[in-house]
Design goal:
Length: 250
């Protein structure tokens, strides 16, 4: 199933929260066949979504963002987010497994290029040794790894699955290249967005905010609980506003 670029306009109802790709429990409209497999959330659906994003600040920038969740042949899951624009490129990826509704990331990579600057983050979740191996631009160190510790992408996915399961997410303990820290999440209200002549109910969620990464998304239950719109801030201070352009559920 496939949708094209939305003709978006938000209503004046209450709004938003920070994180991208979360949702509400009940489907309203489109129904999607769930992926059923041992150890995998019942309603989890692979997808490809593209967004048009604008970066604010001194250098205004328009980029294309692609978000993809796929299931690998060995049963692992691969979540990626890429952003490409003039003199700017960013790629994040997380490889993970599941334990019930809880993601267990194995490794995470983040690479950002802007003008002459490059930042690379690699995380290895060594669960046998109970340690997180962190490398930032070649500098490497370790810290103790807890049972539920996540990276930024698997945290976003975990919060979305919590909503799919009808639970209220509280947040995640995660690392984006720094030390593991608790990042709170909260529901911030409901709204409507007009897309292709239809008003979609959306729920607003916020993740983090005070420092480092922060995200605010408007999730549509009728579109597999994926966001029609999102605003987020990267650890480097890049601020983007994203609007859904195309969505394919697989």
């Amino acid at each position: 199933m496939r949708w094209q670029k939305p003709e978006r306009r938000t209503s004046t109802a209450c709004g938003g929260w920070l994180c991208a790709w979360l949702c509400w429990l009940t489907f309203t409209g489109l129904t999607v066949s769930p992926v059923r497999a041992e150890g995998v959330p019942e309603r989890l659906v692979p997808y490809v979504a593209t967004y048009e994003a604008r970066r604010s600040g001194l250098f205004l920038l328009k980029v294309r963002v692609t978000r993809q969740l796929i299931r690998l042949e060995d049963g692992r899951w691969h979540l990626t987010q890429t952003a490409e624009g003039w003199l700017y490129a960013r790629r994040e990826e997380s490889v993970l497994t599941w334990e019930g509704v809880y993601p267990k990331p194995l490794r995470y990579t983040y690479v950002r290029r802007w003008l002459w600057q490059t930042r690379r983050v690699d995380l290895i979740f060594d669960r046998r040794a109970h340690r997180l191996v962190i490398s930032v631009n070649g500098e490497r160190w370790t810290q103790p790894l807890g049972q539920g510790d996540l990276d930024t992408l698997s945290c976003q996915l975990y919060l979305r699955v919590q909503l799919l399961e009808g639970r209220v997410p509280k947040g995640c303990r995660m690392s984006d290249g720094g030390r593991l820290k608790w990042t709170p999440a909260r529901l911030a209200g409901e709204d409507h967005i007009l897309w292709r002549g239809r008003r979609y109910a959306v729920q607003e969620v916020r993740l983090g905010g005070a420092s480092g990464i922060g995200m605010q998304v408007w999730l549509a239950p009728a579109l597999a609980h994926l966001p029609l719109r999102a605003q987020y801030r990267t650890p480097e201070g890049d601020e983007f506003v994203m609007t859904l352009n195309d969505l394919e559920l697989q």
